């Protein structure tokens, strides 16, 4: 039986890094990134560019449209959300985060 793991939707995975080091955060320049926040609730989001974000506070459960997996992350987590992902954010604790869109996805 053929495996369908090479389908394009399966590579849209959210990567969560728990408790990145202070030096890594400084290297990324996270404190200079813009901030975004939201109150608890459900949000339908579509990412047109890869986003890297660092949660200062909050708790989120994300379910993606093209798979049945849910990903949870919260305060202190560094999260990479792939370009092209459609998902629902179920925010249980208000979010405050630094974020940055990856501009390297544009052709040079």
Automatic annotation (TrEMBL):
InterPro entries according to UniProt? RmlC-like_jellyroll, RmlC_Cupin_sf, UGlyAH_Cupin_dom
Q: Which Gene3D superfamilies match?
A: Jelly Rolls
Which Pfam family is an annotated match for this chain, by its short name? Cupin_3
Q: Ranges for the (S)-ureidoglycine aminohydrolase cupin domain? A: 26-99
Q: At the top level of its lineage, which domain of life is listed?
A: Eukaryota
- Name of the featured protein: (S)-ureidoglycine aminohydrolase cupin domain-containing protein
Q: What species is given as this protein's source?
A: Anisodus acutangulus
Name the lineage. Eukaryota, Viridiplantae, Streptophyta, Embryophyta, Tracheophyta
């Amino acid at each position: 039986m053929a495996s369908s793991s090479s389908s394009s939707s399966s590579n849209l995975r959210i990567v969560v890094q728990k408790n990145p080091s202070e030096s890594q955060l400084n290297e990324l320049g996270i404190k200079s990134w813009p901030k975004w926040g939201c109150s608890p609730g459900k949000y339908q989001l579509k990412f047109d560019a890869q986003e890297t974000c660092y949660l200062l506070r909050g708790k989120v459960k994300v379910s993606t449209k093209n798979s049945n997996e849910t990903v949870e992350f919260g305060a202190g987590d560094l999260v990479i959300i792939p370009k092209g992902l459609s998902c629902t954010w179920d925010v249980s604790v208000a979010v405050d985060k630094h974020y940055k869109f990856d501009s390297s996805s544009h052709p040079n």
